[in-house]
Amino acid sequence: MVQRIIERGEIESLDHTALPRLLLPETAEATFTARTKRLADLAAGKVAGIAFNPALSGYLNLMREVTAAQAEIAAELSATDLDMPDQKSLDLALEHMMPPLAAQLKRPAIWHAILNKLIDKLAHSNNGERIELNAVLTSLRALNEEELDEQADAVLAQRHEDVNPAQAPFIAAALQILWTARAAKLKQQQVPMLETFTLCPVCGSHPVASVIRIGGQSQGYRYLTCGMCASQWHMVRIKCASCEQNGKISYQGLDPIDAPEPAAAPDNKANDPRKYVRAETCGDCHCYTKIFNQEHDYNAEPFVDDLASLTLDILVSEAGYTRGNTNPLLWFGENA
Description:
Helix content is 36%, strand content 10%. It is α+β, with helices and mostly antiparallel strands and 336 residues long. Strands 1, 2, 3, 4, 5, 6, 7 and 8 form an eight-stranded mixed beta sheet that branches.
């Protein structure tokens, strides 16, 4: 479907009750700070809508350290560091309906320095005490820029066979810092509507999960969340986020052990943790994408909530469905 590109000067005349098709991150620092706070709650089992698995606490706390470091580094980036595209490049992306910050194209060289800063911060917080983490950080330091770029290409393309699963989360985290900061500098009218809804219109990366939002113009609408730049874009409900079919969609979930029994109330009562997370499964492509409902948890953070809800992944996988896309902060080895 061809989407008409909004011309300059038309924005002011738009209906302000219209559905926002795209939600850009406010700032990179704010995005990663929010994730850090959410991960602290998830690691402590304080999110009622997600079944707490104590075995994940160590991993979630490590990711909390990662997102905290991301926030600090993002706050230090200058406008020059971001290397934003010029107006000619933005206009060309609009004309050809392409992501203006395509992550698969040439990356700003500063991402290597960002990765080094991330490694330094994590090594400092680790203080050499966690042997496995120290080994991974040391192995990352040993890679030259060409090898790092090859790993970044594999991470962005989700080529699992070429990805080092121990190194990949940290490479992805460095890329996220840069791309989230760049996305926050865009204006909505600079981003075209792509012909496919299965890729981020800002950077062309894959979505991690989706969220039903509450409040304002986005009330009750489903948005996919980019795993790289944190942008969210609207996609209608009951439609597969992998193949875009809608004929065989169903929803599967599990009730957290500690979730309170819902009081007698209408089925759509808000703040029911039993309804917070579901897996949207597709009978056509046999893939699934998680969908989080902000109506049942105002503090929903789909990117990190996805990491903490692995129990749902296991159950849905056992039912014969394959995850549509990888969370870039969690990779499994070949035998996983």
